[in-house]
């Protein structure tokens, strides 16, 4: 009598898991393109981008000499005069509203700068994230603080981006996965150190801007040494 071999049943659970892994991989690598097409930020599967953006915010060095409190440089005087003239540029608006008014609304809760940077939405809108660096945050170990108001900050970030795009020697650019980090020397004071460490040792002038991008989408931007 012939014994008929039992047919092996397909392992549906394993097939589903493999299918999900493949879909996750496709989504991970196509996310930057999808975000560019839709004009909005999409969630990260592992939230690695959010963690790296937060880690980048703490990437400061404190080896620079303390600025002389009694004697300002010509750059400092120029900055103070510029800021006093434009301190009313927000016209009583909140920083976020003033920045969005200066940027171009491209829909889907996204805004575009004159230089072509895209500030998208998500768990925290990138406009609001960058503007967190308009004031000190004493709860953080380190925190870079821009000088100037919200619109001035948007303009400085655009200026840094233009220098990076031009291949200027003032920009140190590094790629990591789908992200590009530009550390741009602005040739003037653009901010100062803040946070707990600055409170202990005193503020230090910052003359460079660190800009982290995914294509033309802003992840974060802040002043750094």
Architecture overview:
This protein is an alpha+beta fold and 225 residues long. It has one domain (48-83, 93-224). Helices cover 39% and strands 21% of the residues. The protein has helices at residues 12-38, 48-57, 74-86, 95-102, 126-131, 150-165, 195-201, and strands at 104-107, 110-112, 118-119, 143-146, 171-176, 179-185, 191-194, 205-206, 208-214, 217-224. The strands form 3 sheets. Strands 5-6-9-10 form a 4-stranded antiparallel beta sheet, sandwiched between helices. Strands 1-2-3 form a 3-stranded antiparallel beta sheet, with helices on one face. The longest helix has 27 residues, at 12-38. The radius of gyration is 23 Å and the shape is elongated.
Average pLDDT, all residues: 78
Structural class: alpha+beta
What's the alpha carbon Rg, rounded to whole Å? 23 Å
Calculate the terminal CA-CA distance, rounded to whole Å: 85 Å
| Number of beta strands | 10
Strand content: 15-25%
Q: What number of domains?
A: 1
From the spread of the alpha carbons, the general shape counts as elongated
- How helix-rich are the residues, as a percent range? 25-40%
Number of helices: 7
**H/E element string?**
HHHHEEEHEHEEEHEEE
Low-confidence stretches: 47-88
Main pleated sheet: 4 strands, antiparallel
Please state the oligomeric state of the protein chains shown: single chain
Largest sheet: spatial strand order: 5-6-9-10
